[in-house]
């Protein structure tokens, strides 16, 4: 499944993943941008049309929930990024991440462990 979000949709999805099922006003209050109620409602409805969000009836309103897992969205976004900008090469992506950031010793150690564990899983 190819999962793609606009920046605004990604922000709304992050609220649902972090906070769980929420009404429009709750989502709106947690967003970084000050958006109109109707704008947040439109984004939620768009996400629902795409199949990324669902809702349950709650009084006269709706309580929206993420219909996809955050990990699935991350995996799809990373595959898209790798394909489009790094010629499908995870090695190029990794090299760019490592060379472009000032990584701390702890972060490097965790990355080395992930690589070692991945190599063990492959053999």
Give me the secondary-structure topology.
Blueprint: H1 7-19, H2 24-30, H3 37-50, E1 53-58, E2 61-66, H4 70-85, H5 90-100, H6 105-122
Antiparallel strand pairs: 1-2
Helix pairs in contact: 2-3
State mean pLDDT (0 to 100 scale).
Answer: 92
**Main pleated sheet:** 2 strands, antiparallel
CATH class of the largest domain: Mainly Alpha
Gross geometry: elongated
Helix run count: 6
Low-confidence stretches: none
Characterise the protein shown here.
- Keywords: DNA-binding, Transcription, Transcription regulation.
- InterPro entries: BlaI_family, WH-like_DNA-bd_sf, WH_DNA-bd_sf.
- Pfam families: Penicillinase_R.
- It comes from Massilia polaris.
- GO terms for molecular function: DNA binding.
- With 123 residues, the protein is mostly helical.
- It has two domains: 7-66, Winged helix-like DNA-binding domain superfamily/Winged helix DNA-binding domain (Arc Repressor Mutant, subunit A), CATH 1.10.10.10; 88-123.
- It contains six helices and two strands.
- It has helices at 7-19, 24-30, 37-50, 70-85, 90-100, 105-122; strands spanning 53-58, 61-66.
- The chain has a two-stranded antiparallel ribbon.
- Strand 1 (53-58) and strand 2 (61-66) form a beta hairpin.
- Helix 2 packs across helix 3.
- It is elongated.
- The relative contact order is 0.12.
- The model has no long low-confidence stretch (mean pLDDT 92).
């Amino acid at each position: 499944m190819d999962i793609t979000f606009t920046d605004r949709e990604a922000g709304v999805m992050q609220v649902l993943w972090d906070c769980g099922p929420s009404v429009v006003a709750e989502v709106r209050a947690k967003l970084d941008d000050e958006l109109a109620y109707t704008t947040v409602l439109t984004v939620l409805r768009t996400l629902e049309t795409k199949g990324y969000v669902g809702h349950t009836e709650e009084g006269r309103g709706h309580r929206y929930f993420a219909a996809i897992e955050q990990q699935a969205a991350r995996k799809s976004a990373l595959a898209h990024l790798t394909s489009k900008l790094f010629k499908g090469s995870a090695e190029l992506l990794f090299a760019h991440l490592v060379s472009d950031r000032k990584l701390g010793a702890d972060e490097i150690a965790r990355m080395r462990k992930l690589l070692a564990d991945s190599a063990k899983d492959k053999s």
